[in-house]
Write a structure and sequence with these properties.
The protein is mostly beta strands. Helix content is about 5%, strand content about 20%. It has one helix and three strands.
Length: about 80
């Protein structure tokens, strides 16, 4: 599920809407604003994501960004290369 942000051109109502498929990302724009009936547009925002615990790159499961030096990472030792 992807979260998109939308804004009304008329009253500046801003909201986020989860969308199941990228192809459906403009569907929330079709009905108009729920407050004033104005035109809704999808806006570009900064990207971001969350890696769930146990995901790739999570220090808690022994993986780190130091590529194979997980024990040093867990111990708090910095690796300089």
């Amino acid at each position: 599920m992807i979260l998109y942000k939308y804004v009304c051109d008329n009253c500046a109502l801003a909201f986020e809407q989860p969308v199941d498929c990228i192809a459906d990302r403009d569907k929330p724009c079709e009905g108009g604003c729920i407050r004033c009936g104005g035109e809704i547009k999808r806006v570009i925002t900064y990207g971001g994501f969350t890696v769930p615990e146990g995901g790739c790159g999570n220090a808690a499961n022994g993986y780190s960004s130091t590529h194979g030096d997980s024990e040093n990472f867990k111990a708090g030792r910095k690796i300089y290369r």
